[in-house]
Amino acid sequence: QQQQQQQHWRHQQQLLLLQTVRKRLKSCAHKGQLTAAERCLNQLERAGTCAVMVEDYNLMIHGCALANQHGRIDSFFERLRANGLVPTDHSYNIAINAFAKIPDMEQVEAYLQRMRDAGLQPSLVTYGTLCKVFPGRHGGLR
Predict the structure, then answer these.
(1) Which residues contact 71 (CB under 8 A, 6 or more apart)?
(2) Are 92 and 125 in contact (CB under 8 A)?
(3) pTM here?
(4) Do 70 and 107 touch, CB atoms closer than 8 A?
């Protein structure tokens, strides 16, 4: 009984720690503080596959855009997959939007194609981003 209570207590402490780390990751990523955010992600990855979520990598992808480190976006897609997770349409939309803003049309089209290759359909968010990037260009996308 006592051992069971101790295990439960340790589990609760671990969940609280993971919540705290995830909140810090979110805060740092939204401020473009990529180094601090990545430290948090590393901590979540070390905690195991049950601790890290697709949303954590989405935050890092967004953080790359804010920190003007677009070249690192691919690495977070790779890490996401390496941890047994699958990018969502939201993951691709964040990348598409990031590259649209600088603008890097080759990467926009590459991520749109990756999205399709993954069996995901572009959403209204995707099309909204593309309309901003390619105004008045009918059929301009491959």
Answers:
(1) none
(2) no
(3) 0.88
(4) yes
Q: How far apart are the first and last CA of the chain?
A: 63
Output the six-digit token pair for 28.
Answer: 């740092």
Distance CA 85, CA 133 (A): 29
Reported as a single tens digit per residue, the pLDDT across 59-111 is 999 999 999 999 999 999 999 999 999 999 999 999 999 999 998 999 999 99
- Among 101, 50, 51, smallest CA distance to 73 is for 101
Six-digit token pair at 92?
């691709």
Report the distance separating Cα 48 and Cα 83, nearest Å: 9
Tell me the angle at which helices 73-82 and 54-66 cross, rounded to the nearest 10 degrees: 170
Helices 89-101, 124-133: axis angle to 10 degrees equals: 10
- C-alpha distances in Å from residue 64, one per residue of 28, 88, 142: 11, 17, 26
User: Which residues, other chains included, contact 101 with Cβ-Cβ below 8 Å and sequence gap of 6+?
Assistant: 65
